[in-house]
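User: Hey, quick favor. My workstation is busy. Could you predict this chain's structure for me?
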Amino acid sequence: MSNQELRVLGQDDDADGCCPGLLTAPLDEDQAVELARVFKALGDPVRLRLLSMIASRAGGEVCVCDLTPAFDLSQPTISHHLKLLRQAGLIDCERRGTWVYYRLVPEMTDRLAGILARPAAEPLPAPTGSAS
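Assistant: No problem, here it is.
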């Protein structure tokens, strides 16, 4: 993961604390652009399923040969979706012979969770009006 991605998500290489959430500090333009790229990668049902399949796999990794049959899509299409998840920093991979094995990048999902989390001590805001 690049230093820029870490900074965008609220941490750099030297930080040990939790990242600031959306509710504690406004994002600047660069942060919003980078974070939108990550959420865009998550904004597709196929990519969400792929991420879930990878994250929930016993042993922490899964071969692309086990992912592709779960979808009614071509192998190049699955590879494209996996590439977008990799570019967003959500997964990583390793080639072993002719197969590629994918694993979750837990630091990224932990940071996303931290960004979206409301500080525990903060009460929920009161509703301001009805949605109808």
